[in-house]
Amino acid sequence: MEAPKPAAPAPRSDLRGGRPARRTDRNSLLNKHLTRAPAAILAAALLLTGCSGGTDDSGGGGDDPVTGGTVHMLQNADFSYLDPARGWDGGVNAFYRLIYRGLTMQAAGDSEDPNAMVPDMAESLGTPSEDGLTWTYTLKDGLAFDNGDPITSTELAFGISRTWDPEIGIGSPYLRNVIDAPEDYQGPYISGESNPSIETPDEKTIVFNLIEPFPEFDNVVAQVNAAPFPVGSGAGDEFINDVIASGPYTVDAYTPGSAITLVRNEHWDADTDDVRKAYPDAWEFEIGLEPATIDERLMAGQGTDASAIGGKVQPATLARLQDPALADRVISAEAYCTTYMGMNMTKAPFDRLEVRQAINLAIDRDSLVTASGGNQLAEPATTIIPPAVNGHKDFDLYPSENHAGDPEAAAALLAEAGLEDGFSFTLDIRSQAVMQAQAESIQQALEPLGIEVKLNVIDTSTYYETIGTPSQQSDAAITGWCPDWASSASTMVPPLVDGRVITDKGNTNLAQINDETLNARIDEIKAMTDIDAANAEWGEFDEEAMALAPMAPLLWEPSVFIPGENIANYIPNTSMTDLTIIGLKDPSQS
């Protein structure tokens, strides 16, 4: 999925310097929380999450989360969409877990294996047919929307079918890429029915017919757009004023760009939900704050800010976190997303391999680290799959001393392409200070080659939609990518280079590369049922894709967070922090 917006809640460091140690066991599941932190921060995290004892629901004063109160979220930008068929970045995905449910989901952030797939509204994980072409799920009893109407297989089939709508279905592509559908199917509003390849033989049973076997299908129906909707609902922008919740909270008030208030969904039955703890009575999201202001408020912790969380700490704040009064609240999260610059291969001169390779060689990644806040918050990336994700292979096809770029080698390639005098291109960037600094670093690295980089600054709330619309994207764009499930690398590289997933909207293949050899390799690896063996192949595939240079990996960006003193069970993650397990130590202080 697209990397989270910098100030969104999670929403993706290690306070040591230099490059993090490479893992020796790439096949072990990634532990996304406490084991990532260095010893001093680990101790603080253990205190914060209450790992030393059970949950006390009787009152406040301890370090464990208790029921009640209001958690406050301080954030810079609004969520991309409240509709799960449209949104698909780390920040909003974390938010969706509070108000929507699906058949399966990623395990709780404090579980033994937080990357595991577990049942949600389904009684168990799916049952595939012998040929792998159908998957069957049985729903739990007692499922309901926030108005009390029951959730059956019909509502699930309808909600999932919204993904095929050409205007609404711009979020996660996995449902429509994996589940079969009539060639002319355009979702229930246009085609007039739910996808006929999704069968509902009775109220509790739902059967999916796939295009081809997909061994990781439990992960597909865990995508945020696999949420139930009442039949006939959710067309257009209807969801803005009437969110139809199936999770523990529902939207009480929403002022776009300013505030969101969530209150308990009285029809959510905790007995049907093994993951969401839903400790707070309410959530209040304060939107539109400057990142530096968020840091200041969380460090001061006055009033309700003691019961607040925010995005990652800004680089200028890091030094102040050494204050002993703050140190026990500092928590880090290792990066498992990659920040990269996609180059649009449909536009000259990025249609030339030598040019794309020259850009990879010329970029000064050491300067990018500095621009991003230093080595506590960034390290040079040379691959698409980051070291923390299963399947990573350590390679560097475009090396330079200290990752500072090799302009001489780049100039030689440009000369081969007949561009020894350089060229100009437009680079899309988000309206964020760090993004601006990163773009300026690229400008400076390419300027000696006669390459002029023009910056096109796009508002954060519409950035992903803009660059994901081929008719609107410029020559190149800086963005990020995270795996949609971290237990394998199957969702790390293919969405960025598979030519068959290029769409008019919600496009993830920013380079618009469509290489038959790469496409065939994707099919070959996806068909493998041995996930460990497949991960090894994804590492090889990463190198094969980078030989064609459709993008320039820039950085792996770990993060540092400082929650309010009254926050408990906060386990930050650089892709999607699990908000559903967060609570307060003392609800009376919120």
From TrEMBL:
<protein>
    <submittedName>
        <fullName>ABC transporter substrate-binding protein</fullName>
    </submittedName>
</protein>
<dbReference type="InterPro" id="IPR039424">
    <property type="entry name" value="SBP_5"/>
</dbReference>
<dbReference type="InterPro" id="IPR030678">
    <property type="entry name" value="Peptide/Ni-bd"/>
</dbReference>
<feature type="domain" description="Solute-binding protein family 5">
    <location>
        <begin position="117"/>
        <end position="493"/>
    </location>
</feature>
<dbReference type="GO" id="GO:1904680">
    <property type="term" value="F:peptide transmembrane transporter activity"/>
</dbReference>
<dbReference type="InterPro" id="IPR000914">
    <property type="entry name" value="SBP_5_dom"/>
</dbReference>
<feature type="compositionally biased region" description="Basic and acidic residues">
    <location>
        <begin position="13"/>
        <end position="24"/>
    </location>
</feature>
<dbReference type="GO" id="GO:0042597">
    <property type="term" value="C:periplasmic space"/>
</dbReference>
<dbReference type="Pfam" id="PF00496">
    <property type="entry name" value="SBP_bac_5"/>
</dbReference>
<dbReference type="GO" id="GO:0043190">
    <property type="term" value="C:ATP-binding cassette (ABC) transporter complex"/>
</dbReference>
<feature type="region of interest" description="Disordered">
    <location>
        <begin position="1"/>
        <end position="24"/>
    </location>
</feature>
<dbReference type="GO" id="GO:0015833">
    <property type="term" value="P:peptide transport"/>
</dbReference>
